[in-house]
């Protein structure tokens, strides 16, 4: 009898929960996502995520961007959108400074504003970033360590030693190696080299390094030009399966090397997930969900958001992904 | 009907003798009705019209500037870069001489001075273009392509390629305000500028000479017109309008940068041609250009109301419109010529 009662109560509770969630889902919002450039492959991929989000949730989420990467045109598109009864606006700014007045106008109209890759923007509710820089660096290191068999000498490559995010990633990678992989040692003579964000330079630099330091077994790449350039050097020197590289990379630029295994893994964040996550965050804000550490947007890589240290606006996900020979054909940018 | 054949070919129309303008007006009305039918709930709203009115002044002014130089048989490819250079320098001045915390009077003085400086820079850049075209005789398309790079380069040097933000609050606040709560300031600036240029072209001797120069430069020279001076003035006026556009963009984005609005260069040429300005010079007017600006703004805004149409198609649509207009103009010219010869 007690069992029956319990199951009855459970059923009622479950039904109530379903009813409640259905009730909460009744309010459908109109959400505009504005990328930097609607014709760029990265943002075409983002649009897939936005469309999927719209299909899955029933919200009217859509992407609308300038036809060219031009801050002035982006302002124009946003100006149009905010007079079209939208509930939320998600923006990837071409130039954060240029958007402030028009975003201020949007906020005056009670439109929820979410930015992505726009942490300097003041006139927004929240800025959503794919990840914390140090954690992303650690993630690259984990992948490189796996390829290297967790032992050997490695070094790090950045576009320029003055580039803030690349160096934070590289620092994160080094910290991870120190903490988790005792048999990995950083190349003391040249612990950080520059590729100038140019695959020709990263190729030359890698060739030079592998010749100069025969003990060097791995390179951490940060700029998206690093890993493919290093992979080309590995291929030419015939060092495949002897030395390894892992780092940020765009699938189209790296496809050949990832497929034949010269380039063990490329890491990056997925613009389609970022697009969906921005919409989900906007809906949470619209529904009055309290935005706190640990917030779950229900999007892969954005299950446990954290505020950036010292900020109540910038939210960090853990939206990195790793791409290897098996998964590279899922990405078309 | 023999009576009609005996009538003069160019009959005075509704707006002087400007058949082209009447045609553009008709297209405008058609497009407007089309937009109203397609998206009545979003299009027919005061806020939509305000939004459009804030958007077109910047590229509208650039288009009028380009149109002026096209009237002389030339072109100005450097308008966007002149606007940015003027804005960047004005922004520098505002930030250096009216830092945060300055008294309101001082800030106001500096802002006004910076705006005057921007206009001066615009006219100066225009004069450089005009001198290259007239005195040195470089074809306008090459001369302004060169200065395009030059002005952009200067602006990059001044800014190190980064945007200048943190302008005095009052600048953007007044620049983005609506007069009487309805008419955006930038729209008023556009209207006044267009009116001035329109009057200059249609009611003054300067305008008459400009048309003459564009129709036949050699004839103008033999008629005793100071052709070089006229070229310089036309390009200076274009530079001045570009500077005003630069100031508008600066207010709209509360910042200045070397490459804002870079895509407007081609757009403003498109608009000038669409507005009936002949690329060979001598024909066209401001009202035609304004009508073309409005038509393109309608198309652009209504396109943004369709959630599933990517802005990919915007360029295609505009390209089709431009080629269509060129073909129509050509056909009408052929028809008129045939009538004249009959």
Explain what you see.
- The complex is a heterodimer of chains A (333) and B (342).
- Chain A is α/β, with parallel strands linked by helices and 333 residues long.
- Chain A contains ten helices and 14 strands.
- In chain A, helix 4 (96-108) links the parallel strand 3 (88-91) and strand 4 (112-116).
- In chain A, helix 7 crosses helix 8 (226-237).
- The N and C termini of chain A lie far apart (60 Å).
- The model of chain A is unreliable at 18-25 (pLDDT under 50).
- In chain B, 74% of the residues lie in helices and 2% in strands.
- Chain B is built from 15 helices and four strands.
- Mean pLDDT of chain B is 88; it is low at 1-15.
- The radius of gyration of chain B is 21 Å and the shape is globular.
- The two termini of chain B are 14 Å apart.
- Chain B has a single domain (17-31, 50-305, 313-330), classed as ABC transporter involved in vitamin B12 uptake, BtuC.
- Chain B is mostly helical and 342 residues long.
- The A-B interface holds A 38-39, 47, 60, 62-68, 70-73, 75-77, 79-85, 95, 97-102, 105 and B 42, 45, 47-48, 50-52, 54-55, 58, 163, 165, 172, 176, 249, 251-255, 257, 259-264, 300-301, 304-305, 307-308, 310-312, 314-315.
